[in-house]
Amino acid sequence: MSETHSNPLDDPNANPFEVAADAAADIARLTGVEKHDIALTLGSGWGKAADIIGETTATIPATEVTGFSKPALEGHVGTLRSIRTPDGKNVLVIGARTHYYEGHGVRRVVHSVRTAAATGAEIMVLTNGAGGVRETWTPGQPVLISDHINLTADSPLEGATFIDLTDLYSQRLRDIARGVDPSLDEGVYTQFRGPHYETPAEVQMAKHIGGHIVGMSTALEAIAAREAGMEILGFSLITNLAAGIQKTPLSHAEVIEAGREAEPVISALLARVVEAL
Ligand code: HPA
Predict the structure, then answer these.
(1) Ligand 1 center from residue 132 Cα (angstroms)
(2) What gap in Å lies between CA 275 and CA 38, rounded to an integer?
(3) Is 8-276 a domain of CATH 3.40.50.1580?
(4) Residue 158: is its pLDDT beyond 80?
């Protein structure tokens, strides 16, 4: 795997929080915004929200910011945007997610979240496209994340760093989201390592241990966000019913298409929620 720029996070002696502070300084310099209030990571299907939450004051390629990797996937935009909402909040929109399955290590996966915290953001909104375990859900439906099960067998925390994860996905923020759309359902997000989709047996396991959503992101980022002291709001777009629940095979094309179709509606929802935060 060749990359033109070496990434400081690949140096095992680097302090990831110092790298995040450097990245935040890059963002302040490139956007002219000293402090961001809210950060948003936009997963599959959520990208259009950036166009409607307010006025974009700066767009920067993620590669200009210390420690960011190039996006691995088509459909994931590699930019950071600074947006000013109508009521004057500065929102950092992260369109460059590094997934655990890319194999660059968990430090790179959570770098955007640590950077968001270093820019001053107190609220981290994490969004993704994911599979639904509940038969009653339909593709295109957004759901709130109420909690997670981390099946990656990894953690962004290093050393004896004991962090409480009770109310990780803030009840307060979920209540605000429900105030915007009372019909929002919620469920427990189960992060698998990927990049393969789950087997039907793995989906049944997720269901038996209390999972309602299956995906390949978010949980590790949420842990790092909590470590950094942020309050977290999580949304999944159900792009498909999970393997075996849906009787037809899963495909990345189907996931992208479901995201594309749902995008206008869920982006508008997200913009209204951000306004209410
Ligand atoms: N499983 C895991 N990740 C996903 C899925 C799924 O069914 N759909 C979209 N991302």
Answers:
(1) 8
(2) 11
(3) yes
(4) yes
